[in-house]
Amino acid sequence: MSAWQFGQYGLSLYQACTVAYYPARRIIMRLEQMKRIADMIGLKKKSREAVCLMEIDGMTGYAAARQLDISLSTVSRAHARFRSAMKQLSS
Fold first, then answer.
1. 10-51, pLDDT tens digit by residue?
2. CB 54 within 8 A of CB 68
3. Less packed terminus of the chain by CB within 10 Å, N or C?
């Protein structure tokens, strides 16, 4: 985003930098939280990667399975276990 675009959206340079900083911070915090949950439920490496691709990158289960060369059912089970653990922790 260039300087003129900041003004176009009513943002100062400080505000634009803050907007850029906090999403990255949220992702780092989310990765740490994901790692703890994955450790807790015992996800294997490729299953962890698949869940990360889906949760952080917004990839579909099918795309994550193809990229990691694992079955779609493995990805689906890992994602379901991860989501279930997240729900239990948040309640």
1. 444 444 444 444 455 566 667 788 888 999 999 999 999 999
2. no
3. C
Q: Please answer whether residues 59 and 75 qualify as being in contact, where contact means their C-beta atoms are separated by less than 8 angstroms.
A: no
Which residue ranges form the domains of the chain, and what is each CATH number? 3-90 (1.10.10.10)
Return the number of other C-beta atoms located less than 10 Å from residue 16's C-beta.
17
Angstrom distance (rounded) from CA 90 to CA 5: 38
Stated pTM of the model = 0.68
Residue 28 structure tokens:
């780092």
The per-residue b/e assignment along 40-76, b for 16 or more CB within 10 angstroms, e otherwise, is: eeebeebbbbbbbbbbeeebebebbbeebebeeebbb
The alpha carbon of residue 10 and the mean position of all alpha carbons in its chain are separated, in whole angstroms, by: 29
